[in-house]
Design goal:
Number of strands: 11
Distance between the termini: 40 Å
Largest sheet: 7 strands, mixed
Oligomer: single chain
Radius of gyration: 13 Å
Shape: globular
Number of helices: 0
Helix content: under 10%
Amino acid sequence: QVQLVESGGGLVQPGGSLTLSCAASGSIVTIATMGWYFQAPGKQRELVASITSSSTTNYADSVKGRFTISRDGAKNMVYLQMNNLKPEDTAVYYCNLNAPRWGMNYWGKGTLVTVSS
């Protein structure tokens, strides 16, 4: 059984930084692609960044150069370092595990990030 638990959200001023963490359980974690998605009020959930089991990363254009995704295989953790935050980054951020070969796709419950002065 896979469980994803996000933490690290909160209120930050524009230009500030936050680091989100996702604690993942389940043996599939080590071979899955992990991702962070965000969902602003009234909008669809969108990919922020993803990282494969071999640490290949992919970013949304809106966060390139500001956000960094990483994973710690030994701890089954995934992180999202967010720098130079903007008000438009305000959203609930969700951790995702995707292993399509095994028909698995799981979501955490999300953590709220609010960027406001």
